[in-house]
Write a structure and sequence with these properties.
- The chain has about 70 residues and is α/β, with parallel strands linked by helices.
- The chain has helices at about 20-30, 45-55; strands at about 5, 10-15, 35-40, 65.
- About 30% of the residues lie in helices and about 25% in strands.
């Protein structure tokens, strides 16, 4: 499934979804419930990874971020 709840932790699986890094970064800046986010195989470029990384300063709930197998 795309989103699941395991042990009261919200997990979002967006593998192979090709979403833009700007939309992901915007979501991460405002989200307060997501614990794990899987973004592997999304063709996210280094600039996109930097943008997502900057958004994590405002996010206090995310504990796992998978960015493997991107550009």
């Amino acid at each position: 499934s795309i989103i699941s709840m395991v042990d009261k932790k919200y997990i979002l699986n967006l593998r192979n979804s090709n979403l833009g890094s700007k939309q992901i970064a915007k979501m991460l800046r405002t989200n307060t419930t997501l614990h794990e986010l899987f973004l592997n195989n999304n063709n996210i470029c280094p600039e996109g990874v930097a943008e997502i990384s900057k958004s994590l300063y405002a996010n206090t709930s995310l504990r796992v971020l998978d960015l493997s197998c991107n550009n």
